[in-house]
Amino acid sequence: MPFVLLILGNIATALSGLTLKCTNDYDEFMFCQLEAQNCTEYRMILQNDSWNNKQNRCTFEQCDAGPCCCSIQMTLVGGEIHTATVWKGNKTMGSKIINVIETIKPKTPTIVSVKESNRNFQVKWKTNYVPTELFSNSLNAIVTYHKKGHNEEHSKSFKPSQLDGDYYYEILGGPLEPNTKYEVSVKSVMNNKFSDSSKEGEFTTLAVNKDKTLLDVALIISLSVAAVLISSKQSGRT
């Protein structure tokens, strides 16, 4: 009973007006952000509740945008629970329970190629996990593309398949504007937790073949005229 009360106490412990958010990549890094001023005055101890003698530590630094950040390189195991305790000098500011599975944020994927095939465009990427592992194959994906320099986006959320060790998606060329540059990016998704967007890849749609278009129009007109003539002849015989 005291143990249960201790856990509940940790969950409810306020971080003295501070906000701590932690995610992990389910591989080797735990990332934490702390809403505070004077970042370097704060440090964090991460206690593995399954192994009482196993601790990891980090000191917060100023992030590029806003909150204080720290990252810990560690072995992450599904099902494990950690207690993160924030300190300012020798004073404990509070603690927070971190469940490894519930705080997964997938690694940022990497686009390896965007190639045209029969006027469609095949996007291939790596999840940056071992492609044969169950976790990599359990990830969903969101592919987003737009005309370069334009804000209007088209996105597709789906379960990707593998091709030659990479994951892929085919963007249909039919609805795209001809002779136009497009940019495409990919996110990985796990339990409604989204990775950061990959670096964008680029592709250019093919120009319209005017000669072929004119030939197609001429062929359609010829067939239409022939159909009318045949119909007229058949009507004259009746």
From TrEMBL:
One of its GO terms (cellular component) is membrane. It is found in: Membrane. CDD domains: FN3 (cd00063). Residues 1-16 form the signal peptide. This is Fibronectin type-III domain-containing protein. It is a single-pass type I membrane protein. Keywords: Glycoprotein, Membrane, Receptor, Signal, Transmembrane, Transmembrane helix. Residues 105-208 form the Fibronectin type-III domain. The keyword Membrane applies.
